[in-house]
């Protein structure tokens, strides 16, 4: 009986250690992805480069490519295929998402971007700590999270088309709903990464790190949009439309 107990204890300890290694790996990989995008956007902002002049492609096209790759990545049996395949797709997602965000970086100064990035880190970090450490009773369960996500998606779809119609206020509203969606997903995905849900996350490092990257930078872009919206309301008309998702800003 004691032998069985010792084997069970060893198995549990091994599982816990494996989960800790997985968690550290996911956070390190997500940090690397965020660092690459951050440095790229900072360089573009500092050099005042207009990406749409260099690559005359609307930013929403890059975003569509990124979401298409993400959809394929999620459907892949990541645990059973070679690591090079999912990580190549993750690299493509980061490149496309960074290109989409880079189309607007020429209108921001470096100090502003540092401030927005700091705000994003504080918000995301706080939500991740809640998802990893708070009691489950204090966090929204799967049903509540699912309802919030469904409502946000239902509102985002019409707002997306209205935003593409070059209406500034709808673009800001779209960003507000997107930020609410992201802040709902972050604690949920953190619970999954830390093994607090019913499913084991081990082996899904590419997907988990990519989701941290995407939710973090989606919130970062929303903060950038809010700042420009507030500035344009205070100072009057702004030189660049926030509706750059629908047209190529020159």
Number of strands: 0
**Largest sheet, if any?**
none
Overall form? globular
Structural class based on helices, strands and sheet pairing: mainly alpha
Instruction: Report how far apart the termini are.
Output: 75 Å
Number of domains: 1
Cα-atom Rg, whole angstroms? 20 Å
SSE string: HHHHHHHH
Q: Which stretches are poorly predicted, pLDDT < 50 over at least 5 residues?
A: 1-13, 239-250
Overview in brief:
This protein has helices at 2-47, 51-54, 59-75, 84-102, 110-133, 142-164, 168-193, 205-235.
Task: Describe the protein's architecture and organization.
The protein is mostly helical. The chain has one domain. It has helices at 2-47, 51-54, 59-75, 84-102, 110-133, 142-164, 168-193, 205-235. α4 (84-102) runs parallel beside α8 (205-235) and α5 packs across α8 (205-235). Mean pLDDT is 82; it is low at 1-13 and 239-250.
What is the secondary structure topology, with strand pairs?
Blueprint (H helix, E strand, L loop, with lengths): L1 H46 L3 H4 L4 H17 L8 H19 L7 H24 L8 H23 L3 H26 L11 H31 L15
What characteristics describe this protein?
disordered N terminus; mainly alpha; 76% helix; 0% strand; 250 residues
């Amino acid at each position: 009986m004691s032998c069985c107990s010792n084997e069970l204890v060893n198995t549990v300890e091994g599982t816990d250690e494996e989960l800790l290694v997985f968690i550290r790996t996911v956070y390190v990989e997500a940090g690397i992805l965020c660092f690459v995008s951050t440095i790229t956007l900072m360089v573009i902002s500092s050099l005042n480069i207009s990406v749409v002049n260099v690559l005359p492609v609307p930013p929403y096209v890059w975003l569509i490519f990124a979401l298409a790759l993400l959809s394929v990545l999620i459907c892949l049996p990541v645990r059973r295929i070679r690591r090079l395949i999912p990580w190549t797709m993750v690299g493509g997602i980061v490149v496309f998402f960074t290109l989409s965000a880079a189309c607007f970086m020429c209108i921001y100064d470096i100090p502003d971007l540092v401030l927005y990035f700091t705000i994003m880190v504080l918000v995301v970090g706080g939500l991740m700590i809640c998802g990893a450490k708070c009691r489950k009773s204090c966090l929204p369960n799967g049903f509540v999270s699912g309802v919030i996500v469904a409502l946000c998606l239902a509102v985002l779809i019409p707002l997306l088309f209205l935003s593409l119609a070059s209406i500034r206020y709808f673009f800001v509203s779209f960003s507000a709903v997107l930020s609410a969606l992201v802040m709902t997903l972050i604690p949920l995905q953190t619970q999954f990464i830390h093994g607090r849900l019913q499913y084991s996350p081990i082996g899904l490092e590419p997907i988990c790190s990519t989701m941290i990257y995407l939710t973090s930078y989606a919130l970062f872009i929303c903060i950038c949009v809010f700042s420009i919206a507030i500035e344009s309301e205070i100072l009057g008309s702004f030189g660049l439309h926030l509706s750059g998702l629908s047209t190529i800003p020159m």
